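Anyone else keep sequences and structure tokens together like this?

Example one:
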Amino acid sequence: MSTAPELRIRHLSPAFRTFCGEGALEALPRELARVGARRAVIVCIPAVAEHTEAMGALHAALGDRLAGQFDGVEEHSPLPTVERARAFLEAHDADAVVAVGGGSSVVTARAATILLGEGKDVRDLCTRREGGRLVSPRLAAPKLPQWVVPSTPTSAYAKAGAAVRDPETGERLALYDPKARAQGVILDPVMALTAPPRLSWSAALNVFSMAVEGLQSRQVDPLADALLAHALRTVVAWLPRVTEEPDQAGPRLQLMLAAVLSGQGSDHSGGGLAQALSHAIGPRSAAPNGVVEALLLPHAMRFNASAVPHRIVALGDYLGLAEPAPGAVIEEIERLLASFEVPSRLRDVGVAQDSIVEVVAHAMDDWAITAGPRPPDERDVRELLVGAW
């Protein structure tokens, strides 16, 4: 009789509160009162700020606890914008932050909070290469409590990291601080409908890709796998309905719940090759990061297949395949991506072939690339990108 392999895991679940559905915003003032916050600052993109019904409801919920609104968030969280958000928090004597919108709002708010708390230059705080390996400095200063009121599904809700882009150098500067995690997320139906359907669609592709890459982790954690597997199934079931039912909040709220699951599960499994590459390619592409990540997903799976065939087979089980051999699972992922209308080539999303060398250099310094089951070298990454172009 065969013996099951020894199972050893370390699974720590940070405190995180989720409120979803009609009346969810009513929880926000109670959440602020719970930590004694009296001066909350909203951080959002201009497009969300223009939605008077949704923002009016948020302002009413905050009442006299609203100290100000920074509505200058930009895509990919460029460093100058993050610095302006940090200055805004300081000028308004903020004691809490409410990030409103998508991933850029969440990341900008988190990064601004870290810079405010630490009071140092971002290059003294970011992850860097030391002695051939990536190291994240320990950031000890207290951070302002944060909540997220999203307009799109993003796995960034519950993360401890925030990566900002230096537009002068093209570098991705990653900040990591568990104290900067959000206290929770408020999933409001009206706010969920403020995003164009295609924006919710592209954001959900990131949720899907993070779940797929997390389920390929060498580290088998049944608790994380449960979160990731349900996130995967939820996206498969509900993503098509976002564009089919553009005026319905239900599908969007389901995808937001999947984003919570995928974000929390991937915290334990780590990132992956497609994620790292999308970080490097996204700003050089005509497509959102989630689309780029999904496009690269089958290529990354083929690279990983020899290292974790059993994990890919298990992934096929979650997708309901009758005979989930690794090759069949990757083909099913490709079929799903095609049904989601994801482009299949990097050239289709505006990536220039002569940018591949620069992309490789930036990807090799991305923390997510260290979390995959088969660590690549520069040649591996270059060959994958050429094959995907």
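And example two:
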Amino acid sequence: MTTAHELYAKGLRDHLAPALRALGLLGWRRTFSLPDETHWALLGLVEQGGPAGPTADGPVRYTFDLSLVRKTDWALAAFPGPRPDPRAVYGIEIWRARIGEVLPVGEDVWWEVLPGPRWRVTLDDSVAAVRHYGLPELLRRVDRDRGGTGETYLGPAELEQVNAVLLAASVARIQRAELVDKELVLTGAWTRADAVARTVLQGVAHGFLSAGDERFGAVRCLDTLGRALWTVDPSTE
């Protein structure tokens, strides 16, 4: 009997990878990118199960990581390799997410390959998720970043100084700091339920506000999907 791993390997080679390339993605094996002159807009295949370990004859589960990196940032960082791996975290990403976060369910989603007559339905469903949700979100993020939604507030060196403070408090780094409509907008991999991040970032926000920069009067924190988390506005405190 054909195992799940054998079916998955065949499906990846003969169906999944060709289908992703048909959507305009360039790549091989398990990492793909959209052609773009200024950004690495990336899709990475993340797998569980396979021929090694106790799940050798069990199902193969997979999902996708999405990642967006400016090519100039990648070149300056001088990481090894010709391009970023969307499954790795480098700290220079503009945005990254699991595909489940941009699907209507808004949570982690895994597809499972099992032996049986309908095993290819799983592959078709995952390609549809990339076509209708993953790629549109990547393209939207590229357009948003290229469009210059805001003026960059801190240079790389200054931002690293602030991020060193966050690192000491075990809080995720600020990925982007920009000025938008008289607000300083900070973006990072934070969640509303993270009370430590909220407290530390409020302290950081008050530090920014104490500089008396007339270009902004409030500080707003967003997660990497652009959702509002917390706002520090002295006029309402």
